[in-house]
Amino acid sequence: MTKILRPLSLGLIILAGGRSTRMGRDKTALPWRDTDLLTDLLLRSQAYPFTERLLSINRPYESSHLPAKLARTVRLVIDNYPDCGPLGGMEAALYSGQCDFYLVLSVDLPFYDFAPTPDLVKLLRRQPTLQAIIPRTENGQDQPLAALYSRQLLPAITDHLQKGNYRLRHLYQDVPAAYVDETFRSALYFNINTPEAYEAAKGRDTNSRRQVPVVTLTAPKSGDGKTTAAAAAITELTHRGYQVAYIKSSHHTVARRKTGSDTDRARKAGAVSVCLCGPADYPMGTRKEDYILALSQQQLADLVLVESRSHGPFPQIDVTQADDNQLVNNILFLTGYRSSVI
Asked: Binding of GTP: at which residues (predicted)?
């Protein structure tokens, strides 16, 4: 007699009960894509037919921004073990939930699109004894707050909490678990913990809607190293196979091409096109930032670097605050060509 397998029920748990101490403000309410971070994540969750959606938030949440059908599937859960971090939120949600397994996500994942979910479910069906499936991204980094967990872990979670062991890693390392390589889409797991990370996420998202992505290299004053940083970045980016255009924002009314100038240095570094933008170049009544952005979108290049003290399009990198060794990787993240800042 053929055994009929019971359909696997999969729910979603969003952990939004953190204190956001490093961010300095409530991450759930951060503006994101015409709404806020939490609402956008819930809207994105429609990409997979979860049986239920549980929101661990520990404070009132107004779901009026959500489609009515989606809002009816979202249920708020309050921690039974307050101030115990993600493990406390998971305990409350698993105790309240009814599904076999749950995809557990932190609220601060601005790019997570749920594309990995079917693959995680397929792996679980092939290895039904698993109790956790943990994605791994660049440099072998575990992503336990974008992972799959069995509801059977509830007793173990409760035991950990009662013993004061709040490390999520200690939980999944002691149970049957699988680790999946997600290096090829590490950006999905980029999380917003600090104001700097929030700005980086906004910059990358803005560039995703542009025909040619743009990054502005800035500095508080002349002589702070903008051109040196730009030339070094162009050289390295060109070496990696990217075609880079360069736009110099200038205060000079008349600019002449000359050896050793900033534009000459950019050209010699490998820029495929070089533009100088001064006050006489943009029409009266047009903001310089808008003109530079329009000019950047006309360049036949993979990306555009703008050098400017204050008139460059967003996103911007202050070269006096940036890590020289990570500048090119940060540029590639902001332009969407690299999956992680790291």
From this structure: 15-17, 27, 79, 108
Strands 244-249 and 303-307: parallel
* Same structural domain, 60 and 122: yes
Q: Which of 5-9, 185-189, 235-239, 300-304 has the lowest mean pLDDT?
A: 5-9
Burial level of 200, CB count in 10 A (0-12/13-18/19+)?
buried
Are 107 and 15 a contacting pair, CB within 8 Å? yes
Identify whether the C-beta of residue 200 lies closer than 8 Å to the C-beta of residue 341: yes
Dihedral pair phi/psi, residue 222, rounded to 5°:
-60, 145
Instruction: Return the closest-CA partner of residue 230 out of 211, 209, 249.
Output: 249
Write out pLDDT tens, residues 170-180: 999 999 999 99
Q: Residue 49 sits in a domain of what CATH number? A: 3.90.550.10
CB of 145 closer than 8 Å to CB of 86 = yes
Torsion angles phi and psi, residue 214, rounded to 5: -130, 140
Same domain, 210 and 158: no
Report the binding-site residues.
15-17, 27, 79, 108
Q: Are 186 and 113 in contact (CB under 8 A)?
A: no
Q: Which residues pair with 147 in a beta bridge?
A: 104
Binding residues for GTP: 15-17, 27, 79, 108
Q: Indicate whether 256 pLDDT > 60.
A: no
- Local structure of residue 50 (DSSP, 8 states): -
Q: Structural domain tally of the chain? A: 2
Q: For residue 341, what pLDDT band results from cuts at 50, 70 and 90?
A: low
What residue numbers does the annotated binding site for Mg(2+) cover? 108
Token pair 């956001």: residue: 20
Domain boundary among 166, 189, 212: 189
**C-alpha span between 206 and 298 (Å, rounded):** 17
Q: Are residues 178 and 123 in the same domain?
A: yes
Provide the domain limits for residue 306: 195-335
